[in-house]
Amino acid sequence: MFKYLLPVILFFVLCGFLFIGLYKDPSKVDSPLIGKPAPEFSLPRLEQPNDLFSEKEFLGKVSILNVWGTWCFACKQEHHILLDLAKRNIAPIYGLNYKDDTEQAKMYLRDFGNPFVSNAVDQLGRVAIDWGVYGAPETFIMDKKGIIRHKHIGPLTLEDVEDEILPLIQNLKNEAS
Amino acid sequence: MKHHRVCQFIFAICIALAFQFASAEIITVAPEHEKRYHELLSELRCLVCQNQTIEESNSELAIDLRLEVNKMLMQGATDQEIIDFMADRYGDFVLYKPLVQPKTYLLWFGPFIFLVVALLLVLLFLKKHKPSSSAQLSDDEKQKLDSILKQTKK
Q: How far apart are CA A26 and CA A29, in angstroms?
């Protein structure tokens, strides 16, 4: 009996794997940076080019880093989500202005609202390479030690914020610093 | 008239070439690095358009990464250092040739395991279904055979 059942069982196991595969988004690749300290960098601030923005900014608190650019359509899509997240005042949101025109970036924030505490300007995109960025928008969450704990690829939705981002930030806030 | 045609042809080729170069950025690779440069690029996946290498892709990121690989070559980085640089940032997924590590053992050795299992099954099957013709004839059968042979001889 078992002899005949075995191929059937194997067949369904294979089907199970393929079925799970159907619901996985191949454009979302796990970042090897999760669990590692934020990569070092030093970039001018959008607001104050003489003042440098470095990864030390993330120490001592739970923080969010959002990679964006005015050329990036999906960033516009998620902009209101970021504004909403900023209003909740749960963690500071920093921006990495990626391969953008600085003047246009300033204008964009003036026109559509500014969810960011501060922005680092990565005009060449070299720092973004160190952060493993491959498609804006991307959102990183760092714990109090400045270690990357989460990366979200693509535009944030309200569900992402409610179900993933907020609970995670709450957990990280409860961790000892 | 014939001359005119040739001119047209050359003109068309020039335009085609212009477009060809317009789509590719200009990276000056030192001649001594050229071979390694192309080998490395063809082993690295571009995450923006996942079925292309960073050599083939024209996405902005691929261009930046080509520049970065060239820069590292100029600075004397080894192939392994460059591959590690990419995998550290974008994950092992960018390597077209996966690393041999516990996570990928099944990927690398799975086919051989299947082969061995299949061979064992075949052996088992053959053993079970030994052709009966090779078996000795029973006395009864021998007598029968003899009588048939005698009959045919007559």
A: 7
Domain ranges of chain B: 29-99, 100-130
Please indicate, yes or no, if residue A14 is contained in any of the structural domains: no
Of A29, A124, A125, the CB nearest to B91: A29
Range of the domain at A85: 36-174
- Sign of the Cα torsion B117, B118, B119, B123 reads positive
**B89 contacts in A (CB within 8 Å)?**
32-33, 129-132
Q: Would you identify the CATH topology of the domain B29-99?
A: Helicase, Ruva Protein; domain 3 (1.10.8)
Residue by residue, pLDDT tens for chain B (154 residues) are 567 777 677 777 766 666 555 555 677 888 888 899 999 999 898 888 878 898 888 888 899 999 999 999 999 999 999 999 999 999 888 888 888 888 889 989 999 999 999 999 999 999 888 776 656 778 888 889 899 999 887 6
CB-based contact (8 Å) between B47 and chain A?
yes
Query: Residues of B numbered 95-154 whose beta carbons fall under 8 angstroms of chain A's beta carbons: which are they?
Result: none
Q: Does the pLDDT of residue A165 top 80, yes or no?
A: yes
pLDDT given for residue B18 in this prediction: 63
Q: Is residue A19 domain-resident?
A: no
pLDDT digits (tens, 9 = 90+) for A65-82: 999 999 999 999 999 999
Instruction: Using the CB atoms, write b or e for A132-171: b if 16+ within 10 Å.
Output: bbbbbbbbbbbbbebbbbbbbbbbbeeebbeeebeebbee
- ipTM comes to 0.81
Rounded (5°) CA angle A83-A85-A89: 110
Share of chain A above pLDDT 90, in %: 84
E strands present in chain B: none
Q: C-alpha angle with apex A172: A168 to A175, nearest 5 degrees?
A: 150
Look up tokens 């990927």; give the residue: B107
Give the whole-angstrom CA distance, residue A110 versus residue A70.
12
